[in-house]
Amino acid sequence: MKDLVAEFDAIRARFPAGFDSSLVVPFLRRIQEDRGYVADSDIDALVDYLCVPRIQIEEVLSYYTQFRRKPIGRWHVQACRNVSCSLLGADRIVDHLTQRLRIRPGETTGDGRFTLSTVECLASCGTAPVVMINETCHECVTPQKLDALLEALT
Amino acid sequence: MSSTKLLMTFPVSATSHTLVEYRERGGYATLEKVLRQMTPTQVNDEITASGIQGRGGAAFPMGRKWGVIHLNDGQPHYLCANADEGEPGTFKDRWILENAPHLLVESMVIAAYALQVRNAFVYMRGEFDLPYRRLAASVDEAYEAGYLGERILGTDVSCDLVIYRGAGSYVCGEASALLTSIEGRKPYPRNRPPRLTVRGLYQRPTVVNNVETLANIVGIVANGAQAFRAVGTAKNPGTRLISISGHICRPGVYEIEVGYPWSKFIYEDCGGVRGGRQLKAVIPGGISTKVLTAAEIEPLHLDNQEVEAAGSSLGSGGMIVIAEGTCMVRLLQVMLRFYHHESCGQCTPCREGMGWLHRIIDRVVAGDGRPEDIERLYQISAWNDGTTICGMGDAAGYATSGILNKFRDEFEYYIDNKRSRLHGNLECLASS
User: Fold this and answer.
1) Three-state SS for B397?
2) CATH 3.10.20.600 residue ranges in chain B?
3) Which residues in chain B have Cβ-Cβ distances shorter than 8 Å to A122?
4) Contact A64 B166 (CB under 8 A)
5) Do A18 and A54 have their domain in common?
6) Which of A154, B22, B356, B377 is at a distance of 20 to 30 A from B206, taking alpha carbons?
7) In a mutagenesis test of the A interface, which of B160, B288, B426 is the best target, namely the one with the most A β-carbons within 10 Å?
8) Helix H segments across B38-157?
9) Does domain B328-417 correspond to CATH entry 1.20.1440.230?
10) H-only helix segments in B230-347
């Protein structure tokens, strides 16, 4: 986290005084962007920097689904399987990904390239089914489109 | 579509979201007029007179919410735009964030002036990528141009806007949970009273409004409350953004005047049901609103009053179309898996109840359903109703009892025969 301190100071300046507790979520997001997950040492550093209780950070990390405490694959493939996506074939998409990557949702491929997850509603229901790979949302996906996408990711 | 437009008033292009083009459309002229010619009270009066209701799901009158804020009470007030958009089926606010981000920024500065807010926030769900990038760029542009920050347009009004990104949690769409999340904590919803407009963010008076509700402010203030009231119905003026998905030919976001005929919307504007199938049911406004059958929606108009009289709600405008041949047992399973996953765990009836509902429906789908399971689902739904701090317990119950009431025969068949009468179909493959 140390090398992010300058950036954190800048973010902190945009918030009103007395809002240090609010910075937990944005800082954890930023840390995870860099490292791919949040390590114990990050929590220690954040406790020191923000002077918030350690339990607050632990609670936030364990509550919000986007935070991770362990490394995952380079490409995080997240398939939505909520109502609108299910009505347009989310089950087929998840099955296809499972077969192609040879992992089940929640697992990472042996070479560390892909992690597969199922998620709930990415607010792209009009272009279902959707799969998010890292930060990018891919809409109206089909098995063929996914194959082409995955092929290009190293 | 012949309906009046208040938000989707310009052709969307690769650059229509930028400040340059927003200003060409008259952008920020209203802010200038407000800051130079109107008092905060006048803006408040205009909003109250417009009769606009919240577009996030609860349809609470915006003017009444604002009216609780005491100007000049010597304490900071906060304003938060709810851009969490987590209700499955809803993707309308995305349209504003991606295509008209400056409309939201301008509206929020006007609101901040009216409510004497120095610090405003946009709480955006963590999964949003393009909407975040578009809004963040607009906020930067607005600071650069002097529409945000210190001494806006040379007046003595100042306002700062921060985009706060969530990190994956449905319950954060609930206003008090949203504020707790901005406080950097696990987002447990709060008991009311006190209302958030009395004790909200860090215990200060806070107004939380949906993105679409806020985006209407510029139009209301620019053209006057009477012009706004001329659109829509007397009790529910204005337009609604409806995001339609599921088994529909032309899914997407549409702006309709409140009171627009429902069948016309589905069959003409949205091209009818996919694959030439018959319509089976419609979820009107996000999965937490009760499902209505094709026959029920036939005579209705897209007006919350009418939809509520029919036993449901237009909710957040997230409409999901379900074609004939869809297995409602499996559809309910998808919904209950979601609610179970998203329960924050604060209230016992929801924390335990969602798990029970989910396990029972899983058992039914696996062919191990018991005859008493239908009554159990009903009973747990009833236990949840009104016994939880936020509306999520109620919502899961509405979704469950809504489907059971209308499609009970499918559940009975599934339990008796240990299989779906409709082959477990969720997907609507081309008509064969």
Assistant:
1) helix
2) 242-323
3) 127
4) yes
5) yes
6) B22
7) B426
8) 40-50, 62-67, 92-99, 101-115, 130-144
9) yes
10) 262-264, 294-297, 304-309, 328-342
The 10s digit of each residue's pLDDT in B397-409 is 999 999 999 999 9
Average pLDDT of chain B is 96
A106's tokens: 């929640």
Residues B57 and B308: their CA atoms lie apart, in Å, by 12
ipTM for the assembly: 0.96
Task: State the smallest CA–CA distance between residue A110 and chain B in angstroms.
Answer: 26
Task: Note the pTM of the prediction, 2 decimals.
Answer: 0.96
Size of interface A-B (CB pairs under 8 A): 150
Number of structural domains found in chain A: 2
Third-level CATH fold of B242-323 = Ubiquitin-like (UB roll) (3.10.20)
The hierarchical CATH code for the domain B19-229 is 3.40.50.11540
pLDDT 10s digits, B269-300: 999 999 999 999 999 999 999 999 999 999 99
- Closest chain B residue to A11 measured between Cα atoms? B162
Contacts of B168 in chain A (CB under 8 A): 64-67
Using an 8 Å Cβ cutoff, are B79 and B91 in contact? no
Residues in chain A, overall count: 154
**pLDDT digit string (tens) for B142-198?**
999 999 999 999 999 999 999 999 999 999 999 999 999 999 999 999 999 999 999
